[in-house]
């Protein structure tokens, strides 16, 4: 039996983590086996890479090429150690970010060549693609303000980027959603938590009526 793979995407501060947790709770209440995970991270190796990418002082000044390779390394381990085995067991996997974040952050926003980024993504995931990707869409300035307000200390390495970077990120996700409407669903993330939850429920009911 094969499970469902649902990913949550969006710019910083869009509410992905909150909505992922809420959806996990609802699915479990309905009897589903759910695995919650995140990227970068999800495995011991991935969490070490996450620290290097986001928090470690040694990560400051990292070049875009090194950055994209580290994200891909974390993802390759994540797919093989966690995601694919869970799906094979029939679990619903909910992931906070996946390959689309690399396409957008390192491709669109860092302006790395799309051909190379796409090839690296394909190599890392080895055909393991989401059944549904939920993009929580908010203006870049709103998301960045939220992200910096919630930080308990100084903004992390990604949160230190300029507004133009996050505007490119937002547009990148919208472009992906327009290109692959069969996989993506764009949710208005500026609404209340309850309204966003209701919108996600509607998408899940439409795409996966058996759930």
Automatic annotation (TrEMBL):
It comes from the Bacteria. It catalyses: dTMP + ATP = dTDP + ADP. InterPro entries: P-loop_NTPase, Thymidylate_kin-like_dom, Thymidylate_kin_CS, Thymidylate_kinase. It is an enzyme of class 2 (transferase). CDD domains: TMPK. Residues 8-200 form the Thymidylate kinase-like domain. GO terms for biological process: dTDP biosynthetic process; dTTP biosynthetic process; dUDP biosynthetic process. One of its GO terms (cellular component) is cytosol. The keyword Protease does not apply. PROSITE patterns: THYMIDYLATE_KINASE. ATP binds at residues 10-17. Pfam families: Thymidylate_kin (PF02223). Keywords: ATP-binding, Kinase, Nucleotide biosynthesis, Nucleotide-binding, Transferase. Its EC number is 2.7.4.9. GO terms for molecular function: ATP binding; dTMP kinase activity. Belongs to the thymidylate kinase family. NCBIfam families: DTMP_kinase (TIGR00041). Phosphorylation of dTMP to form dTDP in both de novo and salvage pathways of dTTP synthesis. This is Thymidylate kinase.
């Amino acid at each position: 039996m094969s499970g469902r793979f649902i990913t949550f995407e969006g710019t910083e501060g869009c509410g992905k983590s909150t909505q992922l947790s809420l959806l996990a709770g609802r699915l479990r209440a309905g009897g589903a086996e759910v695995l919650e995970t995140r990227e970068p991270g999800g495995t011991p190796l991935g969490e070490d890479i996450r620290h290097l990418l986001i928090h470690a002082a040694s990560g400051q000044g990292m070049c875009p090429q090194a950055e994209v390779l580290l994200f891909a390394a974390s993802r390759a381990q994540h797919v093989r150690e966690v995601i694919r085995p869970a799906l094979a067991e029939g679990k619903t996997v909910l992931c906070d970010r996946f390959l689309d974040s690399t396409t957008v952050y390192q491709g669109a926003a860092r302006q790395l060549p799309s051909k190379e980024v796409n090839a690296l993504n394909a190599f890392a995931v080895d055909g393991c693609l989401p059944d549904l990707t939920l993009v929580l869409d908010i203006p870049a300035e709103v998301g960045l303000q939220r992200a910096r307000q919630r930080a308990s200390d100084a903004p992390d390495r990604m949160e230190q980027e300029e507004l133009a970077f996050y505007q490119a990120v937002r547009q990148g996700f919208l472009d992906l959603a327009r290109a692959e409407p069969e996989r993506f669903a764009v949710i208005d993330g500026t609404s209340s938590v309850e309204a966003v939850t209701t919108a996600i429920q509607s998408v899940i009911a439409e795409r996966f009526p058996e759930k």
